[in-house]
Design goal:
The protein has 175 residues and is α+β, with helices and mostly antiparallel strands. The strands form two sheets. Strands 4-3-6-7 form a four-stranded antiparallel beta sheet, with no helix packed on it. Strands 1-2-5 form a three-stranded antiparallel beta sheet, with no helix packed on it. The radius of gyration is 34 Å and the shape is elongated. Helix content is 21%, strand content 32%. It has helices at 7-36, 48-54, and strands spanning 82-86, 91-103, 109-114, 119-124, 133-144, 154-160, 163-169. The chain is built from two helices and seven strands, in the order H-H-E-E-E-E-E-E-E.
């Protein structure tokens, strides 16, 4: 039976044709625009010598520490929650107990003395900032003490960032 309307059969076909035509127009317009503005990509660069002479070289950092975005805004750990220890080998240990926080680079300094009291080493305590980082609950980190085993048996005092520790260093031969 005929209802007098061909809406059901013809409308989806017209809509499909209209969408395909609109897509074709957009593709052609995008291609024409890309071809018309193609010459702007061929800008010549200034000579390298002139650019290098005008700008001073930027300093290169020794170490860049990337912090995940979920922990980037942790507060600093309170020194009262941090405990440093030295030894028994050439190691500095940081122990933390408390809420989530961040220990920044501590810039620790060490003075290592021989058994007769002479200074065998005075300088940075660690080669890297192995003790800095994010802590939560209870955490422990270790860093190798610089200059400790030059003197055989020795004592070391480590200080920095409001923290201090000291202790006897026992070195194995060859370390």
């Amino acid at each position: 039976m005929w209802s007098g309307s061909d809406y059901v059969g013809s409308m989806p076909n017209r809509l499909d044709r209209l969408l395909v035509a609109a897509l074709a127009v957009l593709v052609v317009a995008g291609a024409a625009d890309a071809l018309r503005h193609r010459h702007h990509a061929r800008v010549t660069a200034p000579p390298a010598a002139a650019t290098e002479a005008a700008l001073p070289r930027a300093p290169v950092p020794e170490l860049v520490r990337l912090v995940p975005s979920t922990t980037a805004f942790l507060p600093r750990c309170a020194n009262s929650s941090i405990r440093l220890t030295v030894g028994p080998g050439p190691v500095v240990t940081l122990r933390y107990a408390g809420p989530p926080c961040h220990v920044p680079p501590l810039h620790l300094r060490a003075v290592v003395r021989t058994t007769d009291g002479r200074v065998a080493y005075a300088g940075p305590a660690l080669a890297y900032e192995d003790l800095s980082g994010n802590y939560a609950g209870e955490g422990v980190s270790h860093g190798r003490l610089l200059g400790a085993c030059r003197a055989g048996a020795a004592t070391a005092a480590v200080t920095g960032s409001g923290l201090s520790a000291g202790g006897a260093i026992r070195c194995r031969t060859g370390s």
